[in-house]
Design brief:
single chain, alpha+beta, Purple Acid Phosphatase, chain A, domain 2, seven-stranded mixed sheet, 13 helices, globular
């Protein structure tokens, strides 16, 4: 998701907000590193843990080595922070062909064990990282920090900092950082917020990234952030990409933000994926599969199966926008024709049949094995939700004559009573595919999926139901780490819009577009607790964190139920309970 002026932001404008046009001049800038001694200026990270193995990662940045030379980097994994008890060690080459990144799939480890790791080159030792393998057998608890949407130019990564220091608060240590996409943004320096422009926090390179070198440099910039380095050194990461790791509103054959003068899309997509696999602690796909095959699963003993899916570059069809057919929407017969022939077109895909079959098999086996929970790491909102009718609250006469967005605001105001999807780039834009997913899961005996979602820059707690209203699970959407929220763009009017969206959508139990933060998710044998942790600012490094809301998930028949809301206002609680 981005905050370009489209149907999403126009809906907010209808609720009384306004957008000011602002042109920002690009500034040439390369971010300072953190002053890490020697060659490891991008820190360390680990990820994709299994019971007997985990990926460890770093990048060698040798200041004095010959250009184009592959260099040997030693690595060590120990059971103690002082490295007195070395469990595994070896050497891996940092090669120019991989942008001097070093990624090791360390095997032969013990299940459920915390390990420490480091790298050495010459006389320099990297920062020490900490990681953990997956447990086996009886597992009493799993805890995750869930993040998404991290724009370097929109603020400081205070959320990462809070996760690092919240490790032992309340519920024990985090098992992993779940990153649900938009790990970085492809935009040029024109996208910098005013506060970050003043702070000198700019993208490198200054232009929108297109080439392989561009994507590598953008990864490198983000990895200089001290809070990102700290959180990835503290725990393993399980990550999936969304669109901005390649280009906004990406799909299999193109992207909204890819233009003909930017070259061939297939080449740009391959550059983006190649850089992602180089710079992220993710396990490479099997040899007979392309880089699009990012989906994989993780098992926490008898407690949990976690599946991480791919919904952008493998199978997704181009997103559908109702306003493309604006003139046909206001007569019932033509509106139904647009819905049936375009929106409901069964040939349109999001995951693709191969991946749906894989997920149904994975979750079906999890159910047969008696595992308590099935958790889906997902990019875009899955719950069904439609636009609230704004017309009782605003008239065309109230839209300023001199507004540069007057025509768009009026256009979307007129569309608001039609109950069209708010987020056509999400699962709501692919309703036939969502029904196929639900049917495949139901056929596998699974109607109790917990979905965690990113992309929207907003908190949601949603029930998941199919078109017949049958419960399929629940969904929690995390807000952004830094990327602008609807509250940033629209101010207090975003709260009014949130109330209307919640009131007019039965499956939306809670919606909060006002904060940045993350979700602290704890699963035990009897319940799941989802705490929405917010930070009060990303414009400075001095911040306060607080609980925006908290919910419990329990079994309810064959499916799940969200209960025990905490931290809600009186109106939010009434909307959650369906009393308004």
């Amino acid at each position: 998701m981005d905050m370009k002026l489209n149907r999403r932001t126009a809906l907010g404008l209808l609720a009384g907000g306004s957008l000011a046009a602002c042109k920002r001049e690009p500034v040439t800038h390369r971010a300072e590193t953190n002053g890490i001694a020697g060659q490891f200026t991008h820190g360390v990270a680990s990820g994709d843990p299994l019971a007997d193995r985990v990926i460890i990662w770093t990048r060698l940045s040798p200041a004095d080595s010959p250009s184009g030379t592959a260099l040997g980097v030693e690595w060590e994994v120990a059971t103690d922070a002082e490295f007195k008890s070395i469990a595994k060690w070896g050497m891996e080459m940092a090669r120019p062909a991989n942008d001097m990144t070093v990624k090791v799939d360390v095997t032969g480890l013990e299940p459920g064990q915390w390990y420490f790791y480091r790298f050495k080159y010459g006389g320099t030792v990297s920062p020490v990282g900490r990681t953990r393998t997956l447990p086996e057998g009886d597992v009493p608890q799993a805890r995750f920090a869930i993040v998404s949407c991290c724009n370097y130019q929109h603020g400081y990564f205070n959320v990462y900092d809070h996760i690092t220091h919240a490790q032992t608060e309340g519920h024990g240590e985090f098992d992993a950082l779940l990153h649900l996409g938009d790990y970085f943004y492809e935009y040029s320096q024109d996208d910098t917020t005013d506060a970050m422009k003043e702070a000198g926090r700019f993208h490198d390179p200054a232009h929108e990234i297109v080439s392989l070198e561009d994507y590598r440099r953008r990864h490198a910039l983000y990895r200089t952030d001290p809070n990102l380095q700290a959180v990835t050194a503290q725990m393993p990461m399980i990550s999936i990409w969304d669109d901005h790791e390649s280009s906004n509103d990406a799909y299999k054959d193109g992207a909204q933000n890819h233009q003909p003068d930017e070259g061939d899309w297939a080449r740009r997509k391959e550059y983006a994926m190649r850089a992602y696999y180089e710079w992220m602690p993710v396990r490479d796909p099997a040899q007979n599969r392309g880089r699009e095959f990012l989906f994989r699963k993780f098992e926490w003993g008898n407690l949990l199966t976690l599946a991480a899916i791919e919904t952008r570059l493998l199978a997704r069809s181009v997103s559908f926008e109702f306003d493309t057919y604006y003139d046909e929407l206001f007569e019932e017969e033509s509106l139904q024709r647009v819905k049936e022939e375009k929106w409901l077109d069964p040939s349109r895909e999001l995951m693709g049949s191969l991946q749906i079959d894989w997920l149904a098999k994975a979750f079906g086996q999890s159910k047969k094995d008696g595992k308590t929970w099935r958790l889906l790491a997902n990019q875009v909102l899955m719950a069904r939700m439609v636009t609230p009718d704004i017309t009782p609250y605003i008239s065309e006469d109230s839209v300023p004559e001199d507004s540069p967005y007057r025509d768009l605001i009026i256009r979307n105001m007129r569309m608001s009573p039609l109950s069209l999807p708010i987020y056509p780039d999400s699962w709501d834009g692919y309703p036939a595919e969502r029904e196929r997913l639900y049917k495949a899961l139901t056929d596998a005996g699974v109607e109790d999926m917990i979905v965690v979602t990113g992309d929207a820059h907003e908190y949601f707690a949603n029930d998941l139901t199919d078109e017949a209203g049958v419960a399929k699970g629940v969904e929690f959407c995390t807000t952004s780490v830094t990327s602008e929220t609807r509250g940033d763009v629209l101010g207090e009017s975003a709260r009014d819009l949130a109330m209307l969206v919640t009131r007019d959508n039965k499956d939306v139990r809670y919606y909060n577009p006002m904060h940045k933060g993350y979700i602290d998710l704890t699963l035990t044998a009897s319940k799941v607790r989802a705490k929405m942790v917010a930070v009060d600012t990303v414009n400075k490094t001095d911040y306060q964190a607080f609980r925006a809301a908290e919910f419990t998930v329990k079994k309810s028949g064959d499916s799940l139920k969200i209960t025990d809301p905490q931290g809600l206002s009186t109106v939010q609680r009434a909307l959650f309970s369906g009393l308004v």
